[in-house]
Amino acid sequence: MKKISRRNVIRYGLAGTVLGIAGVAKSWDQALLAPTPAEVEGPFYPVADQADKDADMTRITGRTGVAKGEAIIVEGTITDISGNPVADAVIDVWQANAAGRYNHPRDPNPTPRDPDFQGWAVIRSDADGHYRFRTVKPGAYPATKTWMRPPHIHFKISGKGFRTLITQMYFPNELLNEADLLLRNKSPKEQSAMIAKADGDHENLTVYAYSIVLIPAQR
Ligand SMILES: [Fe+2]
Fold this sequence. Notes:
Layout: H1 6-11, E1 71-79, E2 90-94, E3 120-124, E4 130-136, E5 141-144, E6 147-149, E7 152-158, E8 165-170, H2 175-179, H3 188-194, E9 197-202, E10 205-209, E11 212-213
Parallel strand pairs: 1-10, 1-11
Antiparallel strand pairs: 1-4, 2-3, 2-7, 5-6, 7-8, 9-10
The chain binds fe (ii) ion.
């Protein structure tokens, strides 16, 4: 299995997750990456199957409309703690629409559903461990009367030989991040690993880089 390149380690934001021993490692090949922190699944994992779960959540097969909100790209690389890419990992993502509403029957948020927003995708990493999907930036929503969840995307990642990871990806420069009862419970290093990095644009859409480090199943 080939190692992820140093360039990609930097590009996909893995550098910030390198453990302290990196400073004494003789080469990047020996560096260990901190596993991506887990987070609760939350109450809104989809309950009804849907035909379209592809990598473009801004359109639904058979409909002509486009999801409301700011279209964005999320991409990154799935690796093990040594930086080896994890190919063919199943990446299951679900999120609220631009108005902060999930396509879930028990979401109490009164903001409108968006019939053109897919809301859920199940994709796979390629041979280099890379994945990419198009979606809209999710809206914030109230978890309780006094707690607004910042924009976030839920991830469940399963790679052969690795522990399934359930986590949440956050967006940079969001005021609500600081007050979030889940995110602020993490250490600064963990928070930094869970917040995607704006990484230029692709087809005029902002790209958010979010790489994921998995733990071997037997550990
Ligand atoms: Fe959520």
